[in-house]
Write a structure and sequence with these properties.
The chain has 158 residues and is of the alpha+beta class. Helix content is 19%, strand content 46%. The chain folds into two domains: 35 residues; 118 residues, Immunoglobulin-like. The chain has a four-stranded antiparallel sheet with strand order 5-4-8-9, with no helix packed on it. The chain has a three-stranded antiparallel sheet with strand order 1-2-7, with no helix packed on it. It has a two-stranded antiparallel sheet with strand order 3-6.
């Protein structure tokens, strides 16, 4: 065997080995590494304002697509749920975990079909509150896309 043949054979072995390593890397990066999985960062906050005798909740919602895939937002299941505290605040000697009544769902992002990679959207909603508003409101944001679901929660003292 000549030197040129040996160099050619070694070159083919190295190229084949590199191709196999590249395939293994791609498999772990894209399949096992969840490279193209949906990644959404939801955020919700709110403020209670009073105008004359009426109270309103200004709900601010932000969604940020932090992944590299387009996320299709489903209208069904995507909502802002409002929970009102069942009791007022009392001066207790021990910590007390607030209990919440049933939720009131509010449809959100009805005009949004999808979020592109790196896109951030934000919306504000003005929601009228009952005249006898409990002292605390829990806002729970739920966003649904295919089989994925994200939530964010905020508690507002009214």
């Amino acid at each position: 065997m000549s030197t040129a043949q040996i160099v050619g054979l070694v070159n083919q072995i190295i190229a084949s080995f590199g191709l196999i390593l590249g395939g293994i890397f791609a498999y772990y990066k894209f399949i096992k590494g969840r490279f193209y999985k949906f990644r959404l960062e939801p955020n919700v906050s709110g403020e209670v304002v009073q105008k004359d005798e009426n109270k309103y909740l200004i709900a601010t919602i932000h969604l940020k697509n932090i992944g590299i895939s387009r996320i299709p937002i489903q209208n069904e299941g995507t909502a802002l749920s409002l929970y009102f505290s069942e009791t007022g605040f009392a001066a207790l000697d021990e910590p007390y975990i607030m209990e919440w009544n049933e939720s009131i769902p509010v449809s959100i992002f009805e005009d949004v079909e999808q979020l592109e990679s790196g896109e951030t959207i934000g919306k504000k909603y003005l929601i009228s509150l009952p005249r006898k508003t409990p002292p605390a409101i829990k806002m729970e944001l739920r966003v649904v896309a295919q089989e994925f679901e994200w939530t964010a929660t905020a508690i507002i003292i009214s």
